[in-house]
């Protein structure tokens, strides 16, 4: 079971004082690669323009010669103060203005500004889980509903590593701390996942029936205790940013639910760990362990910008999980899932590392109310050694451009781009590097979808048509087309695909932006 590291000393929550010191700039990226001058000059002459060129203004200076600026728009803000930055004009769907209809209710969207309008009394510096929760609730000891429905503009600066498996007094928590609070009916004994596994073994007397009875009820009760501790809602008009290169939130499920106008930047979201995954013997041919938590979940939320962050499984990557009942004992769900009618989202310059089910856009085929929603832009992101869903899309108009997908080994790779029900995914100038032995036809997957528009892809450095590779063996081919054109919604520039690995490796992930506390 998970045992988190010793937490940092607590700091009293409260508004950041005006005299707060400016921290040093971010470290040089450990993976940064300098783009050769000759290559950069050559590529600048072959930029592919799609619509009018977007001008990205940033605290980091003017837009780069190729592609988007890696920063945001900082109207009068302090240089390096990410808390006051807003999304750059035309930076994907999150910069779009117009109507959106989460759950069928109209909401008028504006370009994402997060908490940039926060007053000084609503600016917080936090370095413990308890402080973060209070800041999002807007008051000490606030509830999850306080956090979920709070729409007062707020900026939360995260300094150092925050672990959700930490009690309010700083005591580290383990999975056993939740399980020991639950007594299994009829036994007088505390709940144990070991007992659960022994009881519901499909090779034993229980067989392949769905778990039920006292042990399943106890597992559910223990799971609710964990959720109360490690799941955190985020409301509207909020910016959460990391300061420096070591800001981290681990062990948590950060859930942006029923919210609008949210920015998450310069943070490592790590190991959204489920102590009590549920066994579902009817999930697939062999059954599966299903976890409840994503590192970050967007539910029924609009105008969200996720930028320059790193998502991973921390100390529990997919290849470290044990096998139980012949299936991986999965303690994670997604890294960043965008579901339940969430809309107008830009995901830029992030890293997604060593995870199986990485990004789901659209939660269910049966949610027909999501038609017209799930508009998402993914650009300049780095995906390494993931299994699937980069992304998998239902219903949405999704644009994935200038991303870098890389395998260092075959591992559990299944696919990258998943065309789900009534989706229209446009993928442009993405670089893919597969390990030896991986089939290029598997990069594309179809799960009820009918179309996927692809252009400008390179595979291991060479031009490739991966939709054609998929169609060559598919029983039902995908149309290489889309029902929409990204340039009709916003302006953007494409990097030549040959430059994508260099730029993404140099700029993506946490710690690559200069970030300071406000003066």
Automatic annotation (TrEMBL):
The keyword rRNA-binding does not apply. Keywords: Carbohydrate metabolism, Lyase, Membrane, Polysaccharide degradation, Secreted, Transmembrane, Transmembrane helix. InterPro entries: Pec_lyase, Pectin_lyas_fold, Pectin_lyase_fold/virulence, PEL. Residues 199-438 form the Pectate lyase domain. The chain crosses the membrane at residues 33-55. SUPFAM superfamilies: Pectin lyase-like. Gene3D superfamilies: Single-stranded right-handed beta-helix, Pectin lyase-like (2.160.20.10). Residues 1-25, 61-120 are annotated as: Disordered. Coiled coil: none annotated. Its main location: secreted. It is found in: Secreted. One of its GO terms (molecular function) is lyase activity. PANTHER family: PECTATE LYASE 18-RELATED, PECTATE LYASE 21-RELATED. Belongs to the polysaccharide lyase 1 family. This is Polysaccharide lyase family 1 protein.
